[in-house]
Amino acid sequence: MSLTLTVLGTASPHPAPGRSCSGHLLRTESATGWLGAGTGTFAELQRHTDPARLSAIWISHLHADHTADLLAAFYAFAYGGLTPPAPIPVYAPQGCAERPAAFLGRPDPGFLGGVLDFRPLSDGHTAHHGDLVLTSRALTHDVEAYGLRAESGGRVLAYSGDSGPCPALAELARGADLFLCEADIDAHREGEQVHLTPEDAGAAAPAAGAGELLVTHVGPTLAPESATARAAAAFGGPTRTAREGAVHRL
Ligand SMILES: [Zn+2]
Prior knowledge:
- The chain is of the alpha/beta class and 250 residues long.
- The chain has helices spanning 41-48, 64-67, 69-79, 98-103, 167-172, 198-208, 224-235, and strands at 4-9, 23-27, 32-35, 56-58, 88-92, 116-120, 126-129, 132-139, 145-152, 155-159, 178-182, 212-216, 239-241, 247-249.
- A seven-stranded mixed beta sheet has the order 6-5-4-3-2-1-14. Strands 7-8-9-10-11-12-13 form a seven-stranded mixed beta sheet.
- Helix 6 runs parallel beside helix 7.
């Protein structure tokens, strides 16, 4: 049994050369998941797997830096010959299908259903694909947003998506072997709890008893290296920066 995370993109809020927005590939013996369809990640996904064979797509929230490449995926699946054998389940907040459909000028998203099977998330939602279990937890953001707990063969990956500080974050990551956590902002604006500082990410990891912290989604006011150093100081445990193309075996 194995659980492997491949980092496809880490940028926030826009892609840069060699750096896509948020996206990850999760692999087990019998399942393959694309976590986050951030701008640029559909191209990166194809370096590592056949997108038509994905078991599932999981979307944390509907901001463009986490969803824009659903449009690229739809074009590939519907018109590009990368046709999946059955519509691929897309676990996402309510209203996700309407986004690519509206971009294509179609208010009714039903036409997407030939290749993408949208299924709305809720707090505690669980999905099973082969030996992979995906559990979603509602977190704090400025739109409906979820974190993910992915489990296979006793190994656990926790992923924050985009979140402000909240008790559910530590619950999500409880005992996780790897905690993939955003550190988007240098400091909180007064009264705003939309993202995490590096210290927030570092504090959530020991609160959860996580084994290792992987820092991602570092925003433009921070550098990934210094954000990781700050998170490591708050965590006091093994901490790394998420890098495009890196493969983490849990
Ligand atoms: Zn984001």
